[in-house]
Amino acid sequence: MIVAEQKPIEEIKGYLAGHKRILVLGCGTCVTVCLAGGEREVATLASILRLSSDSEVIENTIERQCDAEFFDAIKDQAASCDAILSMACGVGVQMVAKIFPDKPIYPALNTMFCGTNDGAGQWSENCLACGDCKLGIFGGVCPVTRCSKSLLNGPCGGSVDGKCEVDPENIECGWQLIYDRLKTLGRLDVLLENAAPRDWSRTHDGGPRRLSREDVAGL
Amino acid sequence: MIQKAEQTNRGDVGIVLCDCGGTLRGRLDFDRLRKQLSRLPAVATVKLCSKFCQQNECTKAVKSLFRNSNHITRLVIGACDRGIFDATLHETMQGNSLGEGLLWCVNIREHCAWVTGTPEVATNKSAEVLTAAVRRVGLASAIESKKVPVNQNVLVIGGGVAAMQTAVALSHLGHRVTLVEKSKKLGGLVAEMPELYAYVASCSSDSASLVQSRVDELIKQVMGDKHICVQTAASLKSVKGEFGNFTCVIDSGGKEQVISAGALVLAGDSATTKSELAPLVHNGGEVPKRIAIVIDVLGEQGRSVSAGVLSAAELLTKRFGAEVKLYCHNIRVSTVGLEGLYRRARQGGVVIIKYESPPLISEQGNKTVVKVEEPLVGCEISEEFDLVIMGDTAAANGNNELLSLIEGLQPGPEETLQADSVWLLPTKTNREGIFVAGLAGGTDELRDAQTDGLATANQIHELLKNKEVEILDDAAVVDGDKCVLCLTCMRICPHGAVSIDVDNSVASISAVACQRCGICAAVCPAGAIELPRYTQKEIAAEVGDRPQITVFACENSAYPAATAAATNGSEYDAKVRLIRVPCVGKVDPRDVLQALERGAEKVIILGCHLESCQYLVGSTGAAKRTERLNRELEKAGVDNKRVVFGELASMEPAKFLEYVRICEGVKNEKHREL
Questions:
Q1: Is B526–A32 a contact, with Cβ atoms under 8 angstroms apart?
Q2: Count of structural domains, chain A
Q3: If you measure CA to CA, which chain A residue comes closest to B536?
Q4: pLDDT digits (tens, 9 = 90+) for B432-463
Q5: Within this chain, do residues A153 and A80 fall inside the same structural domain, yes or no?
Q6: β partners of residue B16
Q7: Which of B404, B483, B484, B529 to mutate to test the interface with A (most CBs of A within 10 A)?
Q8: Which of B198, B207, B303, B668 is the S-S candidate for B332 at Cβ 3.0 to 4.6 Å?
Q9: Which residues of chain B have pLDDT under 50?
Q10: Is B527 within 8 Å of A29 when comparing Cβ atoms?
Q11: DSSP assignment, residue A204?
């Protein structure tokens, strides 16, 4: 799931300065689940904006901001506003901009990562969306994401007591996790293989990616 | 978005006002109240009465109300505290067609008449509060009661005294019991080392055998009872379901067995200090000559630890001729037999050193050195020992396993299985239908373990005796269309009442496990959960369109504290409006912001002290949300002092006044600035 968090309110207010009527638009999918941009957060942020400014602030939440069809429901509301504050991830914000080309669009969230929910109110990053998944080799722990340096052939010298030197308090050494997993599985032998350098062109380094599923696309 | 406080125009609300035997006449203008309220479109009739707390008056008032107007379906009562007339009202409403949930009570005595300066102001406040109640009750829906079948069988985990006592008592009350013990035989720690439990039995020299025979007797009873199925060398593998209908899997000698039960008792023994002392006492081999026992290092230990170590010390001295020194901060002797044991131990040669700061323990060769500042002499004394035993109760290992097996079960201090809350009866856990007895809950004495067993059996019998439980269908409800299954409610519910409805892909709240606190409703990011009687709309209606000082008052603390403040003769600002909530964990930031948007000068959220919230995390959640909200409001440039969170108990009216007056102070300052 995509995990996001609300931007500092000062930054949000900075964007909105000068706008008379603002639509705060929530998204009912990932950002609702990660408590950042669902109906409750929309209502809360909209209230705070109304209390702290003279602008008129209206609100709504749609199913998903990454699909154009869901915007039909808010067309009139959007038309009546001179700015839209999207509480979706960066994907949603861009979709809003595309759907409403003549409206200023602002993000209310910082999109953080693809991650797991580790308990109420806690999330951690697990996938970089690199486009070339190697989890099958590394015992189900991703070296590209979980190792701060994305190393593919074992840990660096900064792994101490299972912690990463980048932030020993909060980051576990991804390679320690890989080693422990493979040891449990009795498959430490796979680490004897040298992993070839990754093809980063499959990641964002090859430019924005596109995906087409030929049996569905264009039907 | 500001929702207009909705008005009902049905004219189906009846109001009863009580002037408390005429005593409120001087403080409230009842005729004006009646006229004003009668003019509300939603109100059908207003009745005055004088002693609503008395059965005949109450019945007369309610009956005449319904006689006058046959389309009354909702009722608002303006009298004193509901607790005073609840029984009477209940009696009166028996057989009345008025649906449960369509009634709202307002305390016009303690929350209006007695705390507000002049009769005019008090009458105005009463009228406003009653009008808010009319708005609120107009939005309420009837709450049906429903019957849920419950399984009368009980599963008891453990084979010690507490477990056996529970099983025997339950069997006598007519329940079938499955008793699951990890080890191969019954009896638990007491059977293993009766000497350490002997102090309560008697001071006689054969007290240990008295204890032994008590345990043997219990084992005989359990084994001979055809309603108790004993499974030794077996353990609990999983628990699913809820109170009344648990499905448990037991692993017995590698074979899995499914057991259905209405209630579950966790009464397993787990390793303690005693198990470290036991081999010494029992092996019959060499006992080291000089032994030190150190307690109270991790924290002050309870009297059961005092009892255990004193018994062991006495035994080691008397039977094995060891020299024993006991280092402690305190010895607790507050139960029968313990003072005697303490004296005997000292007379027998056990030396007890009461320290101020914990001793330092170090290894020197094959000896262990204990260094402590002797408080009487005032200097440091180091002594060598052959063996040092740390007597503090260690985290109970077996309990950790159970905690991970049983979803939502909240541990208490030292991993006992009972959450640390004054609201939980001695053997209740935070999960309905799951009980804890004996050592698993921190009870370490023979008699107390037996008491636990009996109390647990009685509580379970009360719950299961009718093969069904009748409950009001007012548990929190999930709107399936809005739920995104984020699992926040499931993870936060302090009662393990929320589960995933896999078939319908929504969160599902169990009506029997839900305790109606509303904590889930206040955290749902999709706004998909509502607590009947306290829905967002109802709260908004009560807050009204022109709030001034809105106080969300927990019904366990702030609400009765406000009542007590009035009884004490205190007065406070007439602008204060109490919004009763089951727990401040229910207070939704959206409700708070709505009140501010509608013009409230201040919103005050008053709940129980964080550590004594009936719903464990409700108060803490409210405190944290308020902190976050204030931070955001401040950064946004809104006067951050407008939301206040406060902790208090029901018998702290002074604190209630303090919180309410803080806000007056702030307001006055503002006036001065202007």
A1: yes
A2: 2
A3: A40
A4: 999 999 888 878 788 889 999 999 999 999 99
A5: no
A6: B47, B77
A7: B484
A8: B303
A9: 2-5, 7, 395, 665-674
A10: no
A11: G
